[in-house]
Amino acid sequence: MNPTGKAASGADIAEWHPEDEQFWESTGKKIAYRNLWLSIPALLCGFAVWGMWGIISVQMLNLGFPFSQAELFTLTAIAGISGATMRIPASFLVRLAGGRNTIFLTTAMLLAPALGTGIALQHPDWPLWVFQLMALWSGVGGGNFASSMSNISTFFPKRLQGTALGLNGGLGNFGVTTMQIVIPLVMTMPLLGALGGEPMPLLKDSGWIFGKIAAGTPAWVQNAGFAWVISLVPLSIACWWGMNNLTGVSPTAGHPIKAFAKITYLYTLAFIPSIAILYIYLPAPTGLGLISMWVAVPLDICCALLIMKLAAFGPMKENIAKQFAIFHNKHTWSMTALYIVTFGSFIGFSMALPLAIAVIFGVSHVPDAAGVMQHTLKNPNAPSAFTYAWLGPFIGAAVRPLGGWIADKWGGSLVTQIISAVLVVASGATGYVLSLAYNSATPEQYFPLFLGLILLLFFASGIGNGSTFRTIGVVFDRQQAGPVLGWTSAVAGYGAFIAPVVIGAQIKAGTPQYAMYGFAAFYGLCLILNWWFYLRRGAEIHNP
């Protein structure tokens, strides 16, 4: 250790000993928190770009883009599976390329899908595959979570892991809320003047957080993409000049150009399985429609890991092999399941909620002359999805730091056990309310109860996000904790794909409640899993 307790100056820091109290107080704390405060807005923008298709798809419906509800659900699902897949290589990037190099480049990469989406949305006559490509590209923002959390975990001592990761993840998760507030707002104005293109008139009522926007009002839907460029440029510059690489964590990062090449190479590889699996999974005319979602997800994960392992070379091959060692630890798999419960629920419901509100509560469900229930008649008293959808992600993100703090005090597994029980009950109740709403000519009467239950789901998942990350910091040593954090967040990110697909399919089948009942059953299984591994008497790792 450096006897003076001082870290090396400059972008690359050689000496880093956060568990040493003298080092932490004299040097480490200031550097760690500076990296944290820059990491949070970068991650926020990543979530915003990744999740924006949940809002864009609703506005495309309101503007009369020539796509069906099912096709619009695919846009959200494609962004979801892409972002989750990108998290797999992203979980290895900090060790391979350095934290500063990784956060800077992956933040700057968001400019491409932001600009591309803004351009595409000015052309409603363009084919569906163009919008699907933009949704796929937006997955870069989803991948950033794994690298961001892995990076911040290396800066802080174990006793502060829950709080630091809760702040980074929780405030970063505010990107979903920020997006759901900002996008409806910027779509009401010529944000970039003549450079931003012409507006389109709304064919259906839209809205924002303060209420409805009447049909016929002009809307600049393209601003949903363009708005993020304004913040991404200065933020990328700030990350480059203000963040650090820890050479003890990433000893082979090399020159920044070399590091950028590694990041670009691995991210490019991640797109290959996403595109291939989506082509096999999606129905015609986009794809072949040969496999179900339950086959597509594990196949995508396996292909992404296999491609990374086969394509790695030189020092990268050795580093990836070391990080693959986490798969031999049973706790990697148990914590993966538990993080699906928490973050998978948060991001999945965030992605699916806006369009689900529009489809379930925006329509009067009435039988035709033959007694067959129809779901096409506009509901004049429908709540606006844009007015309410942001509340859930807001609550989930806001309480995440609280979940980390409580877990630091009480123990992560105990907190996870409590919120899992809440999720079981709330999911089952939400399913019952949906069954009533989807068979009612006045579904809006059930909306207050639905909204209350959804907010409870987000609250529980937000608390659990912090508690599960705290448990990972206890179960794994410092070398393994970063890769495990990245891996668990990668798999949980598939919730952004699974939830829109499951909910969309059950809405199409006329039984949206079955989606929530299925989620409740999964939460119940994970409640038992958490008790067995971490809470029962005689557990190998008792936490608390």
Structural summary, described in words:
Helix content is 69%, strand content 5%. It is mainly alpha-helical and 544 residues long. The chain has a two-stranded parallel sheet. The protein has a two-stranded antiparallel sheet with strand order 2-5. A two-stranded antiparallel ribbon has the order 3-4. It starts with 11 loop residues before the first strand and ends in a 9-residue tail after the last helix. Residues 1-9 have low confidence and may be disordered. It has helices spanning 21-51, 53-63, 69-97, 99-108, 111-120, 128-137, 139-153, 161-186, 223-226, 229-242, 256-281, 293-311, 315-323, 330-361, 385-388, 391-398, 400-410, 412-437, 447-475, 478-492, 495-509, 513-535, and strands at 12-13, 200-201, 206-208, 211-213, 218-219, 245-246, 363-367, 373-378. A hairpin with a 2-residue loop joins strand 3 (206-208) and strand 4.
Provide a quick synopsis of the model.
The protein is mainly alpha-helical. 69% of the residues lie in helices and 5% in strands.
Count of helical regions: 22
Strand order of the largest sheet: 1-6
User: Helix content range of the residues, please?
Assistant: 55-70%
**Strand count, sense and closure of the main sheet?**
2 strands, parallel
As residue ranges, the low-confidence spans are 1-9
Mean pLDDT across the residues is 85
Q: Helix/strand/pairing class, anyone?
A: mainly alpha
Beta-strand segment tally: 8
Whole-number radius of gyration? 23 Å
The global form is globular
Distance between the termini: 32 Å
Order of helices and strands: EHHHHHHHHEEEEHHEHHHHEEHHHHHHHH
Assess the beta-strand content as a share of residues. under 5%
